[in-house]
Every structure is written in C-alpha cells, then in structure tokens.
Amino acid sequence: MKTLTLATSVMALSLGTAAMADSPASKTAVLETYSDLALAKYEDSLITAQRLQTQIDALLATPSAEALSAAKAAWLAARVPYQQSEVFRFGNPIVDDWEGKVNAWPLDEGLIDYVDASYGGPTDENEAAVLNVIAHASFTLSGETVDATPITPALLEATLQEADGVEANVATGYHAIEFLLWGQGLTGHGAGAGNRPWTDYATGDACTNGNCDRRGEYLKAATDLLITALPWTAAQWGPGGAARTTLLDDPEAGISAILTGMGSLSYGETAGERMRLGVMLNDPEEEHSCFADNTHNDHFYNGVGIQSVYLGRYTRVDGSVVAGASLSDLVSAENAALDAEMREKLSAAVLALGRIKTAAEAGFTYDMMLERGNAAGEALIMGGVNGLIDQTRSIERVVTALGTSITVEGSDSLDNPDAVFQ
C-alpha cells in the first residue's frame, strides 16, 4: 500500500493506476489494496461518526438551533466516507450481513417518534408502523409487554430492529439518526428537508411535541450503537481480519468478490432500487435519505466508491491518499483497451451522478426531480441510471477478460418493470 499526502479529486481518479505499475500486478497485491481501501473507508466512517457523536452530545447537553444545525452538518459529513464503503457489500457476506445495523432503509419512522396525521396508522404489513416508542415507556410488541424505561442501545438493537420480522422497522443506524435530527419530510415534491424544531430536545416548558428527554435518550442510544458497530467492521479488514483473510486465502474468489460488489451496487442497488424505482413510482419516500434531502450525495458517493475500488485509490477525510495495485492494473495487462473503456465508463457515471448533485445543491432538489411530468428531473436521474447500467456492462466484460464469474444483484425496476406495479 502507498499512502500519499497529496489530495486528489474525483476527476484525477479517472486517470487510473495502471500507469503506476512497473509490471502486472498480482491478484494478491490487488486484494491487499482492496482490503486497505476498505479499512481506510471504515476507519473514516468511524472518525466522522465520532464527530457526529460529539455534536449530538452537545445538542443534548445544551439544546439550541445552532447545536441542532451542527449535528446535522456532522451527519452529512459522516455519510461521505460511509457511502464510498458500500461497494464492499454483496461480494463480501461479512459486510452484507452486518450492513443492516447501520444503513437499513426505508424505515417506518412512526415506530420511533411522532409523525404527521397524514402518515396513517398500523397496516396489515406492519402493526408497529406508528408504535412511537419515544412516547411510550411500555408497549406491546409481538404479544409481549416491553419495558422501554429507559431507552437503551439494547432495546433498539435486540427488541426494535426489524421488530415482528418487518424490514421497515428500522430502529438503528444512520437513517434512524437522520429522522431524529431532521424529522419527517412533509414537502412532497417541493423543495425542503424535514424541519424538526430544536425544541424537540429542549427541557421543561420549552419542550415541543412531548417526551424531549426520551427523544434525547433514543438519539444518544442510536448514535452509541453506530459508534459500536463501525470499529467491528473496520477490524475485519485490518491485518489478520476475517474479511481480508477470506479474500487472500482464495485470490480467484477474491477478484470475483470485488467485481460482484462493483456490479451489484452499480446495477441492482443504486441504478435500480435507489434510482429507477423512485422515477417509476414518482415517490419522494423512495429517496435514500428522504429526511435530510441528501439522496443526491448518497448516489454520487456510491459512484465514487465503485470507481475507487477499480482504480485502487481512495482520498481519506484528512486529505491523505491510500493507493496500490489495482483491478485496473490486472485488466490493463490482459486488455489495455478494455481497461481504458472501464475507466471511461466509471468516469462517465460519476459525472452523470455529479450532475444530479450539482442540480440539487443549486436548488433543484431530488424531491422535485421525482415529480411526475418533470422531464428535466427524470432526465437527470435517468442519466445517472444509464451511466451506472453502462458501466455494469463493462464490468461484465472485465469479468470475462479475467476468466472469472459473478452474479449481479438485479432489480424489478430494471429487469421486470411490470412487476413494480403488481
């Protein structure tokens, strides 16, 4: 592994690392770099989550509009390295089995806290959809009486997470914290994130919407769980860690794991479930970060993460760069033209996702893009979708060139659109 002190831009990544290699990289060396990148991204996710925890502790100690704003800014910053780490899912079961603790979505937020009357009530699919744990120190779940005084990490993790076997009962992770900081997004297809008042964490008569002390307990418990979860997965990628060891023990399968993660995040997960599905349903609730209106960044940094793994290069939050032997090196040694194609497609996808990000930051929010009949919004989102699909086709050609095989996660929105509406 090489650690450089000069920060690099996303555009600079498109140059690739093949030119850095004096001779063809070994598969073992590529897997070492891949593991180093995973370790760095999860370490950065922990660093930024710890900064989030500091701001949340400050908010709970002295609630104010400024403290809530600082906590929100820290949450947004924490998403940048984490979203770049999602490329390690799918090909690595140890990550995919763990990921639900920290990034599960979408969630039925009424499980956690108060919601607007328009949200509705319990459903056949989820009787706990409006349980509102924060408002109830005792409640019945799965036929059992639950004592929720106080609200603890154990309550969230062992009792509430996927309660009744319902995946929408998300009680932990980034998106539960997001909801507790922003509140519901009630603007529909209009501009605007959730607008939770800072007084939801105030004390005494200044408290709004009741149960401010328990709301603070829940926010602290969810944040503490996130801080607990991240070191575990980082350790799996360190020297001797289970994820690193598994890959190095079988380099052929390890290369397949890299490509599986790239292809599945690119195609079924991001292009399909997170982007194309929302366009088909014209539903702002299909946003990945619907409370904070941060979905444009979620998609963009997923794209950057895919590119990063292929090029064997990652810019850390402190500006240093982790780089080494890469998949690009392997492909270039087999077929230089295919490597150039792959790097071009990765760059094009990041640029397409970047156009969504730029438009959203200029005021044309993702909510607005999803509105039925908004041709400009659909064109932006579908530009990202098509870029991701296009790069997946090149990933499949890389798989063939390297003599391996993978199974890419699909999505009805891409593979069987009629099923979406059944």
Structure description:
- By secondary structure, this protein is mostly helical.
- It is 57% helix and 4% strand.
- The strands form 2 sheets. It has a 3-stranded antiparallel sheet. A two-stranded antiparallel ribbon has the order 2-3.
- Helix 2 runs antiparallel to helix 7.
- The radius of gyration is 22 Å and the shape is globular.
How do you describe this structure in short?
The chain has helices at 10-13, 27-61, 65-85, 93-103, 153-160, 174-182, 212-237, 242-249, 251-281, 295-311, 327-334, 336-361, 366-369, 375-401, 412-415, and strands spanning 2-4, 138-141, 144-147, 313-315, 321-323. The protein contains 15 helices and five strands.
Query: How many distinct beta strands?
Result: 5
Q: Alpha-carbon distance between the termini?
A: 50 Å
- Rg over CA atoms, rounded to whole Å, is 22 Å
Helix content: 55-70%
What structural category do the secondary elements indicate? mainly alpha
Poorly predicted ranges: 1-23
Shape: globular
Strand order of the largest sheet: 1-5-4
Strand share of the residues? under 5%
H-E string: EHHHHEEHHHHHHEEHHHHH
